[in-house]
Amino acid sequence: MNDITIYHNPACGTSRNVLALIRNTGEEPTVIEYLKNPPDRATLKQLIADMDALVRDVLRQKGTPFDELGLGDAKWTDEQLIAFMLQHPILINRPIVVTPLATRLCRPSEVVLDILPRPQLGAFSKEDGEAVIDAKGQRVAKP
Fold first, then answer.
1. Cβ distance 57 to 50 under 8 Å?
2. CA distances for 18 relative to 24, 46, 75, 78, angstroms
3. Which one of 16, 36, 55, 137 is at 20 to 30 Å from 95 when CA atoms are compared?
4. pLDDT tens digit string along 21-45?
């Protein structure tokens, strides 16, 4: 049984980096490609609650129908915004990672390091070449 779940979009670089950081601990997470298999209402609400986030914090704007649907308007209730996310899963920001320690929206990708129960096993660089973990499995200090 996997202790880590990632709501993943393989087309998203941040999501791919987070998945790679999880795997760099030796863990193989449960990968849910949420665009193909979106969470149901209860699961989405639970994820948001577990993150202690506002619904709007999980709403993705870039590359979505956010503007066309007028979702920036304050008139929409949380329940209505959740309904939009269920109808258009691309509106769910990603990646969301669930571990025994916490549930987080992992943007930037390094956020996942705070909730992984096991240490990094070796060096890791993001797809863009930015070093995140050194050869000893430690975070690289940002300049």
1. no
2. 10, 21, 34, 27
3. 137
4. 999 999 999 999 999 999 999 999 9
Domain CATH code at residue 15:
3.40.30.10
Q: Which residue stretches of the chain have pLDDT < 50? A: none
Per the structure, how many domains does the chain have? Answer: 1
Residues designated catalytic: 12
Specify the DSSP element, H or E, that contains 22.
helix 13-23
Give CA–CA dist 4/28, Å, rounded. Answer: 8
Specify the pTM: 0.94
CB 60, CB 92: distance < 8 Å: yes
Q: Which two tokens stand for residue 140?
A: 């690289």
